[in-house]
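Aim 2, interim progress: modelling of the (2R)-2,3-dihydroxypropanoic acid-bound target.
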Amino acid sequence: MTQALHKLATDILQINDRGSYTVPTKGLYPFQWNWDSCLTALGQRHFDPARALTEIETLFAHQWPCGMVPHIIFHLRDEGYFPGPDVWDCGRPVPTSGITQPPVAGFALRRLLDSAPDLRMRARPLLDRITAWHRWFHATRDPKGTGLVALIHPWESGRDNSVDWDVPFERVPTSGIAPYTRRDTQHADPAHRPTKDQYDRYIWLVERFRGLGWATEKLHDASPFQVVDPGFNAILIRSCLDLADLAEDLGAPDIAAANRGFAHAGLQALEHLWSEARGQYLCLDRTTGALIDSPSSGGLLPVFAPIPQDKAARIAATIDGHGTQYRVASHAPGTPGFDAQRYWRGPVWLVVNYMIADGLDRAGESAAAIAITRSSLDLIGSSGFAEYYDPLTGQPLGGGQFTWTAAMVLEFLSGARRSMGNDTSA
Ligand code: DGY
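Predicted structure of the complex, ligand included:
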């Protein structure tokens, strides 16, 4: 069973490999996506660490001069995706989108180099590049120096249609946008994707930012959508800490100090987002200053960062309390907005499972981490390498032969071998 899964996962990573970058899946996502690529590298490290490093290097070759790393790199034309490079119109030599995505690169690079130390010198320039991205976040997305950065578009979170965005998204208008045709619903069941109303708002924001010439220092204040996502910030904090460790090992104390400073400020501020009632963290609507009382996986993800031990234990209990056959539901079942099949409003995503399990394990919550690992591998065994899964039935949803799902399986298999004494057949 383990060997068969390993082979299937490796095959998918190779099928979706375009030489120097990997597409998330054929058809639905035909370009390079930012956090997909970094997490993909973690899968590639199991059979070709040098290729894994190329994945991250290719992404950073398209970093903007301001430090931002775009969420999509449009390496080749493909009319099967909307919104394509003409809609973004960012004026880059190789077209890119103009927004960013969860900054998981620092974490991924460290994990890759931990298992492939011979690549360290080749990877050294990435330390500066990733730090420039972290600086950019703090300069442009935390203009008041709160310690936490805001998203200005739901696509930046990676959790595109989360219930978390429903209230702040009402502030984004839909009038005046250019007519468009969605392509995603030609590749995946519309009932499992965001709604038309959400797409109108996604596009309104893109047009708003495009109208400001993609001057990234202006976009935060100009956006009617400014949300502090605890999960996104935890990923940034973890990446800062991992990059700081790497920088210390490679004799770059300035890089280490800058990243530790960001992480320290972030960890302190994160505690203001804790909800005792929910047993997890919550998003903050920065335009109103109100917490968004929506129990989604974004509020469980902070365990990926070194949060206090008692909070990690509460998060483990909160996940248990979901009571779903498969974990971790992206929105708490039985609460308003939950939809077991619609993208980020309920389905299980293996990348989120991986980060939560990793954090729980580090926090000493090993039983909870093993339960997530087992549940993830059970899903793959019964439902294949889908984009996401119904947490109640395990039904595979969205795109198939999904790259980051395959990458996470390789990670889970190697971690499971360690933590479950090589018994991954169950
Ligand atoms: C999409 O097109 O669905 C993406 O999530 C946007 O990056």
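The longest helix spans residues 120-141. The chain has one domain: 2-416.
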